[in-house]
Amino acid sequence: MAPVIFLLFLLLSGSMSLDMKPKKSALHQLTKSLLRNYRKGVRPVQNWTQSTMVYIDFITQSILEVDGKNQKMTLSVWYRQIWNDEFLVWDPAEFDGINEISLSFDVIWVPDIIISEFVDVGSSPDMPYVYVNSSGMIKNYRPIQVVSACSLEIYAFPFDRQNCPLTFRSWLHTVNEVNLTLWRSLEDVANDKSTFMNEGEWELISVPSRYEQLHLDSRDYAQIQFNVVVRRRPLLYVVSLLIPSLFLMIVDVMSFYLPANSGTRITFKTSILLGYTLFRVNISNELPATAIKTPLIGVFFAVCMALLVLSLAKSILIVKLLYHSEKPVKDMSVSACLLDKYGSYSQSIKDGGGQSRGYQFEVSPKVEMTPSSGELSKNILLEKILREIVALKHYLEQIDDAGSMTVEWLALCYKLDKFLFRLYLFILAIYISVLCSLWVIWSSP
Questions:
Q1: Which residue of 160, 270, 274, 338 has the smallest Cβ count within 10 Å?
Q2: For residue range 269-287, what is the model confidence (pLDDT) as tens digits?
Q3: How many C-beta atoms lie closer than 10 Å to residue 191's C-beta?
């Protein structure tokens, strides 16, 4: 009797333990039911001739980097993929009204959509889950950091505008297997700036998109291209690069009003040229690097330096001409000129036909008489005085002629200086006008 009671006790305790075991949740049962016979390597369609339509949405969040030297752009975008999986369908009424669940990214079929311009792995956050609703629609929402190859045109820096395409397409499946389309309209995608960080260096203009079919190896592949059109804000570079350079050019123009016959102008212009050289060295890191052609602002700085060198060369030429006209006068004293021209008393004081260059001195005819010794010495002294007076007069006339020639030469040099200054201003004005016109055209919307 006792063994029978013991067996009954064991049976009752076993049944009670079975009744106390926790029941699995509806979410767990739904997940297990969906993935029981699921094959993630098979395209999720009942009819294999039917293509899987993948909807794509694209929202630009920020421009992280524009590398002109390596021709690439780094963007942060919100990317959305939406497609229908015919093998992940259920009746919400059978699972406590569950209409949407999240599944791991690794356990379901995912379209092999890539970006054709992709060149590097960015710091994108890992999003391991996707949403699946009861009708089989799968939503893959995730932020990604795209480092893409882009043909960057920085010739108009800092007034440049860039157009960087991002082409989404299937790497393996043709258009008959995986087709692409936009989730929203073209206008909504192009004008959506709701999440863009608009306080940085770059301003988002628009994101136009278009659908294409790529024919490759006798097969057609669907692709959607998004063109991220951005424009650089030039205010920072105008204040830090262009305005200081223009100030130095204005100071150089004002230095032309310094006296041309002094060394102050050349010293001042040399100081400006040296300061501009140091300015160029300090801003070299702020200019974009490119291996194709120099940006227009680099040409601007090079031409400004060339104009400064031309201005200095013009001033050196004017001073050289002035110094060449004054040197004969400065190097010769009055006594040196007298000894050079009239060093011998026996030199004739008359030119050509016996007349002096200035005044004519008439000497009375000799009287046929024998003068006394006192009168003879007096006449000789007067004759010597007359010779000295005539020589001094002749020298003063030469000094006057040289002085008048020097004045005329100085006037000619000043006229040449004024002409070269106006020519310099004309060249500078034309250059700045052309440069500003180009920048205005490129910076206009």
A1: 274
A2: 888 889 888 888 888 777 7
A3: 14
